[in-house]
Amino acid sequence: MDLKEKYGEWGIVLGATEGVGEAFCKKLAEGGMNIVMVGRREELMREKAEKFKAEYGVDYKVVRADLSQPDDACDKIFAATEGLDMGFMSYVACLHHFGRFQDVDLATHEQCLNVNVISFLRIFHHYMKDFAAKDRGAVINVSSMTGISGSPFNGEYGAGKAYILKLTEAVAYETKKTGVDVEAITLGTTLTPTAMKNFPKGPAGDAVVKIALTPDQVADEAFEKLGHEMSIIAGERNKASVHDWKANHTEDEYISYMGAFYEN
Amino acid sequence: MDLKEKYGEWGIVLGATEGVGEAFCKKLAEGGMNIVMVGRREELMREKAEKFKAEYGVDYKVVRADLSQPDDACDKIFAATEGLDMGFMSYVACLHHFGRFQDVDLATHEQCLNVNVISFLRIFHHYMKDFAAKDRGAVINVSSMTGISGSPFNGEYGAGKAYILKLTEAVAYETKKTGVDVEAITLGTTLTPTAMKNFPKGPAGDAVVKIALTPDQVADEAFEKLGHEMSIIAGERNKASVHDWKANHTEDEYISYMGAFYEN
Fold first, then answer.
1. Per the similarity annotation, which family is this (chains A, B) (predicted)?
2. Which of B102, B160, B247 sits opposite A163 (nearest CB)?
């Protein structure tokens, strides 16, 4: 798809360094859009951006920003895109911390909240104002099945992902009849570098890896459905799993299933 | 139920002035617990607290605090309960603002976020540390069906309610085998003073009022199931409605239903 023609010259991906964010950047480059990559590892982003430039002839900017510092991060990001013809944004970045809620200190919870909720809110709002004013642009925000089920021992992460999901769904409806396409994509297990560090050991982890999607598979579905659906669950197996839990189990059963997963 | 015997001397309700918060205070008083009422209207809280004192012989404290100012509010609240034998907390407070996401200014969104997410996180964490250390206490946090469906034209509110729901569910599982009982209760339309100001006019609003619960009905179910269930949807009709949407409709259909509700 000619994304540049449809949405604008530049797209920004928050959490672009690797995994799903990197796969989204590749989609933008394939679609002819220049890319603003935001993450913490500047050199790694630059390496990958140079590859996109060589392969697809697109321009790029790299913004080193720590989304757990919303004031500073937003200043840098908004300054870097000031005056550009922005046409796409995607919030992929997230941060989590395992442990019982009250055993993790508040500063750590707030650091996660800054990434998963506060920076998300500010950045989504900033680009939506621009896109709505031009009646042109697209957003794909990334949630997680932990935002649907709840996530014991990782509860604040699941809560943040629920926030992203429900805000994005609402905005997707609000913009449905406009030139701005908004989509929430909810991921199950995805073979990203971060996820692969966190899989539980043993059979539970092995079973999960077998049915996991790759970042490219997620990106294919996300961009294919952009403008057609508001809220999608990535992959057929995840869709079927969520539907089964919603249709055939109580809330308590779904939470308990998720809790038992990390209790092992 | 003798709540004092089971959970401790004092309970705190955030958003205690009227509606569901007031009904929860009454439950605490009936169960023999002293009450810390937190809200913005000090005189009104004091009037109601005096009634509970007269009727049930319990002690009370009233804390005037604005939960949209988390630093100041938490200082006041934690100081007021310092040294008390706390055994219950409930977060009922919430704030919303109608409008398309990008048409509401960021300061207003962040004010809502402060009430619905940041003060909630800090206060829940504060009392959970205390309850977990004593292995004794109870929490009932209040969510909304907008947190399950998403809430177009009121999107950030629904997102905050999803955050409360998913964090509370996770903590409920983590504490399931302990002396601390944690519950999330998700409300449909409830006949509170705030809700009654916001009902849409005409047949849609009338239909909603007919099936709404009273705050006392919500409180009865919330306290009856405390310690037995982790996540409940208040009322049989709301339970059936949520189950029907989850089992028989897509995410997009659920969002569209909610969106059409406020579009009229």
1. Belongs to the short-chain dehydrogenases/reductases (SDR) family.
2. B160
Q: Are B179 and B136 in contact (CB under 8 A)?
A: yes
Q: What is the pLDDT of residues A173-216, one digit of tens each?
A: 999 999 999 999 999 989 888 777 777 777 777 777 888 999 99
Domains of chain A: 3-263 (3.40.50.720)
Residue A47's CB: how many other CB atoms inside 10 A?
12
Distance from CA of A179 to the nearest CA of B (A): 14
Which of B146, B161, B167 should be substituted to probe chain A, the one whose Cβ sees the most A Cβ atoms within 10 Å? B167
In this prediction the pTM is 0.96
Q: Cite the active site residues of A.
A: 157
Cα–Cα distance, B191 to B23 (Å, whole number): 12
Pair type for strands B86-91 and B137-144:
parallel
Over residues A122-131, mean pLDDT: 98
Phi, psi of A146 (to 5 degrees): -65, -20
Q: Which residues from A are below 8 Å from B162, CB to CB?
A: 147, 159, 162-163, 165-166
This complex has an ipTM of 0.95
Q: Which A-chain residues 116-155 have CB contacts (< 8 A) with chain B?
A: 117-118, 121-122, 124-125, 128-129, 131-132, 146-147, 150-155
- Count A/B contacts: CB-CB distance under 8 Å: 191
DSSP, res B116: I
Measured between alpha carbons, how far is B18 from A171 in angstroms, rounded to an integer? 31
